[in-house]
Design a protein that fits this description.
The protein is α/β, with parallel strands linked by helices. The protein folds into 2 domains: 221 residues, Periplasmic binding protein-like II (D-Maltodextrin-Binding Protein, domain 2); 95 residues, Periplasmic binding protein-like II (D-Maltodextrin-Binding Protein, domain 2). It contains 12 helices and 13 strands. The strands form 3 sheets. It has a 6-stranded mixed β-sheet with strand order 1-5-4-6-13-7. Helix 1 crosses helix 9 and helix 1 crosses helix 10.
Length: 342
């Protein structure tokens, strides 16, 4: 399937003054002039969907404008490594990517750093139709498992099978690319690894297929942050205020989306009329994912656990996905989050 690259221009209106009502009090907020707006290009990991709802909420509610940011959003669904390639080439300032992709890039001596976690746990899962009765990893013996062709996800499957005592030779693996749901519906695969519990599994539920979901972090794979915001190290050194302003504006967007998910989904759809997004699916996905936008323990939005990153990096090293332990060190930073750093 040919994938077209689309660009979405997020026009930031100049607001001279806004009146905000809270607790019976009117506050006047003076927005920056258009001349002071700083451009920033963000590359999504995929086409716009429920995972990105807080970004579009921040745009719709003026969080970027109030941070003096003129944000452009781009996306390309052809390759999960594309955002980091564009980041390295200087085509974008921020890219949404995956924790494993950050480690892989750093192993190739690309100085990329994750500055905030968007989703605080793995979304990647083993999903199957209810009729297949695959509720635990041990039931994969003799099954055909569709994968998306991503090496570290194939390593997930090896780890899960080993943990469950299922011989790898007893499982047939087929590459179905991005056609995870069609592969299950057509019978080409009994289960898929790469489908998201907050998206494809919900889609199957809405189709009345009663899917079973095996969460990879409950089946032997160390937990990790599924989606993160990444920048080049040089961006942190040269433009820390720009990245800090962006990250904290996005945080406000996700806080607002949590408070009013219906309005946030409406803004997501309004900003992407050509994407063909299903309102019911997007809202269900937002509600399912909402608890994992924010870390536990009173940490700020975007927090990344250093021990968690180290443990996952070590797993990648042990599975020969990366070959140098140095990329694990300082792969993420919390210095640009609200209340952190200087």
């Amino acid at each position: 399937m040919t994938t077209r690259r689309r660009r979405v221009w997020l026009a930031v209106a100049v607001v001279v003054a806004a009146s905000l009502a809270g607790c019976g009090e009117i506050k006047n907020v003076l927005a920056p002039s258009s001349a002071s707006f700083r451009p920033l290009t963000l590359m999504l990991d995929w086409s716009p969907n429920a995972d990105h709802v807080g970004i579009y909420q921040a745009q719709a509610e003026g969080d970027f404008s109030r941070a003096a940011l003129n944000v452009h959003i781009e996306y390309d669904t052809a390759d999960p490594s594309a955002p980091l390639r564009l980041l390295e080439a200087g085509k974008v300032q921020v890219a949404i990517t995956y924790e494993p992709e950050v480690m892989l890039a750093r192993d190739r001596h690309i100085s990329v750093v994750s500055v905030a976690a968007l989703i605080q746990r793995p979304l990647t899962s083993i999903v199957s139709l209810g009729s297949r009765h695959i509720k635990r990893p041990g039931q994969l013996r003799g099954a055909t498992v569709g994968v998306a062709g991503i090496p570290y996800q194939t390593a997930f499957l090896r780890t899960i099978l080993a943990q469950a005592g299922v011989p790898q030779r007893s499982v047939r693996v087929v590459d179905v690319g991005e056609n995870l749901v069609p592969a299950m519906l057509s019978g080409r695969a009994d289960a898929t690894l790469g489908a998201y519990w907050n998206y494809e599994a919900i889609q199957l539920t809405q189709l009345g297929k009663h899917p079973n979901v095996i969460h990879v972090e409950r089946a032997g794979v160390p937990t990790y942050d599924e989606l993160v915001f990444a920048v080049m190290e040089s961006e942190i050194v040269n433009h820390p205020d720009l990245i800090r302003a962006f990250v904290q504006a996005v945080a406000r967007g996700y806080q607002s989306a949590r408070a009013n998910p219906r309005a946030a989904v409406a803004n997501l759809l309004s900003a992407n009329p050509a994407a063909g997004l299903d309102r019911r699916l997007q809202l269900a996905s937002v509600r399912a994912t909402m608890p994992y936008w924010f870390p536990r323990g009173g940490r700020p939005w975007g927090w990344q656990s250093p021990p968690q990153w180290n443990a996952f990096g070590q797993w990648m090293l042990n599975n020969r996905l990366i070959f140098d332990p140095n990329p694990i060190t300082d792969a993420s930073t919390n210095e640009l989050l609200a209340g952190q750093g200087i």
